[in-house]
Design a protein that fits this description.
- The chain has about 525 residues and is α/β, with parallel strands linked by helices.
- The chain contains eleven helices and 24 strands.
- The strands form four sheets. Strands 14, 15, 16, 17, 18, 19, 20, 21, 22, 23 and 24 form an eleven-stranded mixed sheet that branches. A nine-stranded mixed sheet has the order 3-5-4-6-7-10-11-12-13, with helices on both faces. Strands 1-2 form a two-stranded antiparallel sheet.
- The radius of gyration is 24 Å and the shape is globular.
Length: about 525
């Protein structure tokens, strides 16, 4: 047990190498350092064999640690105190590497924000430092399913369920946890749902100091293209790289938050965490890039330096370079056309390179009693098994679709995606959700990326940032854009535009209109490249 400055003791496991001292990797997790979810004992065995000691710690109020459970608030000071303890041990060779995935990547950033001088490098996967704008909200829209799933974990020190059986039909939406556990409330969930970005809540040091930290050490930024927070993670990489204080590395693959891989040709994949053998088989993919980075940047061994950027372009292969997007990439704009046909069937309207030569519009109705389902069964685990077939919702009359012609050669999407819509609602508050889809020759529709925006009904265009993608649209496949007024439970919907949607049990149907006309077009901007060389 390692004491913190207030006397609280945190449960800490130390895994040493056979050497008298070694470089140390520090992991601070809220998910039980001995659990199947973190599999840190197996991680320790693997990194010990590569010459690294591992220190694994349960954060305050979780696992076997003392204290009260409250996410984020104590991690800066506790990170500093733990680093101070580790750095004074005779088995600590010198500089310490922070390592983390998801929340324990946040604790790594919090340790960096503490200013302790012992940190020499960091590996961060699956988190963004701007918790308000990229983890709890996105473009002002509450990430409902993500946070509703995560919040029960912080009800107290002991309750833990990685897949809580939440009832998404429960109303009001604020009571989703209470319907599962009558009489229980998550202080974290209650606090963040009432604190949109810009609220003073997010200026508390545990958020602002981490968000604004000056990155002065080498960092390996690891993420997945179907990972929930990769937009913010790429923003962190770009910000740290622009500061220029230390080398920043980017590693992105075709995975989700739990690091499940995109299934080839939609073949269902099993969860590697189900068996020890599966975890051991997974460890090289999980740890080898991190250890290669640490060998170079922490230990300064005479080994090849990792590429500055290494990304997996889904359905194509691995690309390496010095920047992202790749050199020579360019914008490709596709306009929404045949707009009135958008509600006709799954194919709907068209996506075309041609600008509109006449004004077109389409109307549809948002019914808060019949929300458009987001189809994902479990947040964070988009790729476990296989991605859902979006065609299951695309034939709904409240889902607009715009589909391109089949591509006659592979089309590589490699960078940011933005959608600009001329859309309005017959209400003061509106919600727009969009998805970029790969349509297979057999009609199956796979989500590449998505975004949502909740705002006061505008008089001008509405722009949504879908974040970066790395995806090959294969020959014979088509691109599709979905537009709807809800995507639930992935995003918090507008139940009643005149009141608080959190506490409304019902609301009115609302008409929406999408338009495209010369000089005021609706379109999607993609980043594309040709001639890229891929490896394995």
């Amino acid at each position: 047990m390692v004491p913190m400055r207030d006397g609280t003791r945190l449960s800490t496991d130390v895994y040493l190498t056979e050497a008298s001292s070694a470089p140390v990797i520090l992991v601070r997790t809220c998910y039980d350092k001995a659990s199947w979810l973190t599999f840190l004992p197996l991680v320790a065995e693997y990194v010990n064999a590569r010459g690294y000691a591992l220190v694994a710690q349960d954060v305050r109020g979780k696992g076997r640690s003392e204290g009260t459970s409250a996410p984020f608030f104590s991690e800066i000071d506790d990170g500093y105190d733990t680093l101070e303890w580790v750095s004074r041990q005779n088995w600590c060779e010198g500089k310490i590497a922070m390592f983390g995935d998801s929340y324990f990547a946040y604790t790594a950033w919090a340790a960096l924000a503490s200013g302790h001088p012992s940190i020499g490098a960091m590996v961060s996967r699956g988190i963004a430092t701007d918790i308000a704008r990229e983890v709890v909200y996105r473009d002002g829209t509450f990430l409902y399913a993500t946070n509703a799933f995560w919040a029960p974990f912080w009800l107290d020190n002991y309750l833990y369920d990685v897949v809580p059986p939440l009832d998404w039909s429960a109303r009001p939406l604020s009571e989703v946890i209470g319907h599962w556990l009558p009489g229980r409330r998550s202080d974290f969930f209650e606090a963040v749902r009432n604190a949109p970005p810009g609220d003073p809540f997010w200026e508390q040091p545990c958020f602002s100091r981490v968000r604004d930290v000056d990155v002065s050490i080498p960092v390996l930024h690891v993420g997945g293209w179907w990972e929930d927070f990769h937009r913010g993670q790429l923003a962190d990489w770009r910000r740290a790289r622009a500061a220029g204080h230390a080398r920043q590395y980017l590693l992105m693959d075709a995975t989700d938050h739990f690091d499940a891989q995109l299934a080839p040709d939609e073949a269902p994949l099993a969860d590697f965490r189900e068996t020890e053998e599966g975890i051991r088989d997974y460890l090289p993919r999980y740890l080898d890039p991190a250890l290669a980075f640490l060998d170079s940047e922490l230990r300064h061994l005479p080994v090849p330096r990792p590429p500055a950027v290494r990304v997996e372009v889904a359905e194509a292969g691995w690309w390496e370079g010095e920047q992202w997007p790749p050199p020579g990439s360019e914008r490709m704009r596709l306009h929404l056309a045949s707009v009135p046909a958008a509600v006709r069937d799954a194919d709907g309207g068209a996506l075309t390179h041609d600008e509109p030569d006449a004004s077109e519009s389409v109307t549809w109705e948002h019914d808060p009693q019949d929300l458009v389902p987001s189809l994902d069964e479990v947040p964070f685990r988009d790729l476990l098994g296989t991605l859902p077939d979006e065609s299951l919702v695309e034939a709904r009359p409240d889902v607009l679709t715009f589909t391109s012609e089949p591509v006659d050669r592979p089309l590589d999407l490699v960078g940011p995606v933005h959608v600009c819509l001329r859309v309005s609602a017959e209400a003061p508050l509106m919600h727009i959700a969009v998805k970029l889809i790969d349509v297979f020759p057999n009609g199956r529709a796979r989500r590449i990326a998505d975004a949502a925006l909740t705002q006061r009904t505008p008089s001008g265009p509405t722009t949504l940032a879908l974040a970066d993608v790395a995806y090959r649209v294969r020959s014979g496949h088509r691109l599709r854009l979905e537009v709807a007024a809800s995507c639930f439970p992935r995003y918090l919907p507008v139940i009643d535009p005149e009141t608080d949607s959190w506490n409304a049990t019902t609301g009115p149907r609302v008409g929406y209109t999408l338009q495209s006309s010369p000089g005021e077009a609706s379109f999607i901007d993609l980043t594309v490249a040709s001639g890229l060389s891929y490896g394995e």
